[in-house]
Amino acid sequence: MAEDILINVTPFETRVAIVEQGAVQELHIERSIQRGHVGNLYLGKVVRVLPGMQSAFVDIGLERAAFIHVADLRQNRAERNAGGTLTPIEKLLFEGQSLMVQVIKDPLGTKGARLSTQISIAGRMLVYLPHEPHVGISQKIEGEEDRLALRERVVQLMPDDEKGGFIVRTQAEGANDDELAADLSYLRVLWARITTKAKSLPAPSLLYADLTLEQRVLRDMVSPETGSILVDSRATAQRLNEWADTFTPSVKDRISHYSGERPLFDTANVDEEIEKALSRRVDLKSGGYLIIDQTEALTTVDVNTGGYVGGRNFDDTIFKTNLEAAVAIARQLRLRNLGGIIIIDFIDMDDSEHRASVLAELNKALSKDRTRMTVSSFSQLGLVEMTRKRTRDSLAHQLCEPCPTCQSRGHVRTPRTLCYEILREILRESRQFNPKEFRVLASQAVVDLFLEEESAHLAMLGDFIGKPVSLEVEAAYSQEQYDIVLI
Question: Peptide bond preceding 159: is omega within 30 degrees of 0, i.e. cis?
């Protein structure tokens, strides 16, 4: 199916939406002051080695020290792939050591960036592996003959003195030798510049920054199914055309400047889709719905029939709801950029054929996703467990922050709970202090309850401590906020 790419550019933010059949499938947002670091190369300095965790902290010049695990050191790559014993990190790294590293995961929450010394630099058709002398083929290229032929072509184009290797990307499937040779040469020259900088710059220093979001769109997201690439900034469209001239000439004719009166994202209701993607509930066309909860450890997806009663029988209703949910879940994972462990609770199905069909539909829908995933079968509890590689913040973490009212719990204490808490606090303070009066500053809801249903308890407390208690509404306070002033 043809998909269109919409690129909305402002001085402070670039947003990219991938739209298929009028529905937004994927969203990417990059803010000028919060550019991601994945793919960047740094000359870092080891600041602490932790043998107990087989990890080390590395200063690469970011706000928080990044970390590297023993398995991400290239010296251990062969042992890790073979399932052998890894060389301990304390034998490979020491404090104060300068180290060329690549960011493989952006800082997430309170965690620093994750690093690797297994360097890879992506081009349009090839990925250069300067420390690994082999040629690999993308798993998405099917057909053993095609894979062998592509590998042989790349090997023939490699110079005799080449010590590194390459991974052939899916975009290379229809490329000719000149295009492959140009990509190969560009990556080798780029690596030579990086190594020269590494010898002359102090640690920590940035050696190579990955492309901007709009350039990565041309390099990574354009596929044979891509119809048009619309950009609402004339200057950006021109820069992309110039960049495509050099690196992705086959894409150039699809890039055009959008000059319509309506904002570009309004043409596909993208902002409306962003609003929906920040909600817990996702409504299905049939009347069923999903509840998506994202936590620190994992993401859960619960499927419900809701108001759908359209099947011939109850089992048929459940089956059709689960089939529709499988497609919707795959889209939501891409749209929200949910990663890590994901648990899907489909509606229970007794029929094994129904379960197999739902799982097949889920895998089919997930096949459109560029992110690496693993999906298990139904567990004994009827759950589908899967993982989706997480390299950057989810959409919710990019656009939202913890609620200051509920402290990100997702709920607030009731006015009655707060009334009783205030009564206990006044009683506690009356035993320590001897003011003329206690004045309670609280939200409207709490004060109203004190004046109505809890007025007797407030009067009883005043009589017990022998001091008057007055109430004052503080409009700026949230429901859980209050102060007790001693007068």
Answer: no
Q: Is the dihedral of CA 51, 53, 55, 57 positive or negative?
A: negative
What the block records as the tokens of 200 is 């002359």
pLDDT tens-digit series, residues 124-167: 889 999 998 889 998 777 788 888 888 999 999 999 888 899 99
Average pLDDT over residues 87-114: 91
**355-394 exposure pattern, b = at least 16 Cβ within 10 A, e = fewer:** bebbbebbeebbebbeeebeeeebeeeeebbbebebbbbb
Closest listed residue to residue 333, CA positions, set 323, 321, 319, 343: 343
- pLDDT beyond 80 at 33: no
For the chain, how far is it from start to end, CA to CA, in angstroms? 72
Reduced to 3 states (helix: H, G, I; strand: E, B; else coil), residue 234 is helix
CB neighbours (10 Å) of residue 238? Answer: 13
Q: What is the pLDDT of residues 349-385, one digit of tens each?
A: 989 999 999 999 999 999 888 888 999 999 999 999 9
Please compute the mean of the pLDDT values over residues 43-58 and round it to a whole number.
95
User: And the tokens for 224?
Assistant: 């044979």
H or E, element range at 428: helix 415-430
CA distance linking residue 9 with residue 12, whole number of Å? 8
Q: Give the whole-angstrom CA distance, residue 143 versus residue 337.
A: 30
Q: Is the dihedral of CA 285, 288, 294, 300 positive or negative?
A: negative
What does the alpha-carbon distance between residue 396 and residue 369 come to, in Å, rounded to a whole number?
19
Query: How confident is residue 111, by pLDDT bands cut at 50, 70 and 90?
Result: confident
- The SS3 call for residue 398 is helix
Report the alpha-carbon angle 211-214-215, nearest 5.
Answer: 40
E strand spans, 141-246 = 165-168, 205-208, 226-231
Give the model confidence (pLDDT) of 428-476 as tens digits. 999 999 999 999 999 999 999 999 999 999 999 999 999 999 999 999 9
Q: Which domains, and CATH codes, for the chain?
A: 3-35+212-270 (3.30.420.60), 40-208 (2.40.50.140), 280-399 (3.40.630), 415-486 (3.40.1260.20)
pTM over 0.85: no
